[in-house]
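Re: your question about tRNA(Met) cytidine acetate ligase

S., sorry for the slow reply, the queue was backed up all week. Below is exactly what I fed in.
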Amino acid sequence: MKAVGIIVEYNPFHNGHLHHAKQARQESGADLVIAVMSGQFLQRGEPAFADKWARTQMALDAGIDLVIELPYVYATAQASDFAKGGIALLDAIGCSSFCFGSEQGEINPFLNSRHLLTEHWAEYQHLIHEAVQTGISYPKALNNAYLSLTGNRPGFADLTQPNNILGFHYLEAAQNLSSAMDPLTIQRIGANFHDSIQAGMPIASATGIREAFFKGDSIEQLSAYMPEGSIASLKKTEKEYGKFGSWEKFYPLLRFTVLREGPHRLKQYAEVTEGIENLIYQSAKTEDSFESFISLIKSKRFTRTRIQRMLTHIYTGFTWQQLRSFEGPEYIRLLGMSRTGRNYLNHKKKNTTLPLVSRAADLNNSMGKLDIHATVMYLQGMGSTNLKKEFTTPPIYWG
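Result:
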């Protein structure tokens, strides 16, 4: 059986994601689609809108055949490490290809860009270092260095676009892994990554959907932008927790943690650097909402996303020492499967290069224990009374 892999968050699963999954299957000629999905905390440093089981159900309802979890250490990482974790898992489970959505819409510009940077790697790193020294953010430094090498010539990927950036890192990760998977991309359609909902457009961004909900729209009012399965899962989430995940909801617990730890201990947590722990602490002392809190911290050097990742690690207690101890994914955590997905696993499970895990009780290494802990902290933030849900929820079987 031939599988195509995709790396996703589904926060929540919407019509654009459905298009991506269908096109990935079609373009690859695959028999099934395997999704590596972030768990309870996401790459932009946020708690998930709905828990990983609800988002797994959304994916299965929409035709995804296998959903496996991207471990916390990669799900909450900068783009290059996020890609490293996702690509490693797709390779380990035996995918023939991987497919990502991009603003570019064609794979050759990505291949050209990757070849260029490989050929001029030392110069590229030097340009990045020089740019960072001027005080600009790291993402801006990367882009400036890249533009210096390409000279805005045609034929290269536009790495100012968020999905293009991720796509480039997927190719980079696959190359570093010496993976035999074929890279594919499809044109991203509809709303851009951060766009608000626009009336009359059937495809909205996940950011726009969440924004509309928190501004007062009901789940039913957002049904035009999501498949029926997503609507049903969100209604179930609302009934179970009485709310959806956001930093505003988690802020009282985050604020307590920051104030309890103090600046000296805050700097031990992953990505907290350059003395920003002092500003985080002082801002928590004065601000009673998350938006006012983060507005005092973000700057040209420290973007909102970078700060949110720091805050995620402070909230979960994830340290620099832990971050530096991991070299790659250590298992394949199964969250859900269709009948086709189960047949694939029966055929492939003896040939996967990482152990397949279906029960939380079997996550007995440090990476697995971190995932379990992250789930407990997420459930606490959601006000759940069932903090053992990780152990009592089996993989979801669809069909």
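The two ends are 19 Å apart (CA to CA). Strands lie at 3-8, 32-38, 66-70, 97-102, 182-187, 332-338, 356-357, 396-398.

Happy to talk it through on Thursday.
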